[in-house]
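idk why but the lab printer keeps eating my pages so im just putting this in chat instead. protein + 2'-deoxycytidine-5'-monophosphate:
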Amino acid sequence: MAFMVITIDGPAGAGKGTLASRLAQIYHLKYLDTGLLYRAVAFKVSQLRKPFKKQDVVSAASSLTLKDLKNPSLREEQIGNLASEVSIYPEVRRCLLDFQRNFVQKDLSKSQGAVLDGRDIGLIVLPEAPCKIFVTASPEVRAERRLKQLHQKGIDCIYEVILEDIKLRDARDRNREISPLRPADDAFILDTSELGIEEVIEKACFFVDSKYPQAKKKAE
Ligand code: DC
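predcted complex ->
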């Protein structure tokens, strides 16, 4: 059985993380949320003087370790927005490209494969991956889901503000010069606007099984 490589790309709040972690459990894969890498760089920069310089961002990216990804503050909304800003620097993307490819190559015998989620995984980071999924949903649905998550955490938020944030982040991620958010030609497009999580998992597994018919699966 070939080492499985699954890439999951899509805009903020489309449900990439939930899908990736479920696929990791089902197929016994190691999982890297690559958004956390950009968030960790953003967090390091946020601790420095303001306004930060490009060199600050590059040195934060080149000194990144897996330990930096464990910081719970990385999930905060303003760190996500700053991550989108720092991700436009080509030098930062180059450092993180090596980090992501090394992650896949490490400890090959410990799992059946790897799943990575982000914005440019199928197109730039792992273009040879046989199994690419592009998860999407309307900005309104993504804003609703985000609002619900924040309310569950006891954080008060306004729908219109979240929607505006999502649209701004989409525009920045889609229109940047280097590695813009875009599906690879051979990606399976999975629109989750009208689907519940179990339907999303079912459709994704159907696609994964078509690419890796020999894969061993955990009973769902
Ligand atoms: O997936 P996320 O919301 O945690 O990502 C935060 C930001 O990081 C996102 O707006 C753009 C950037 N990012 C990127 O440029 N490339 C990736 N592979 C992952 C994230």
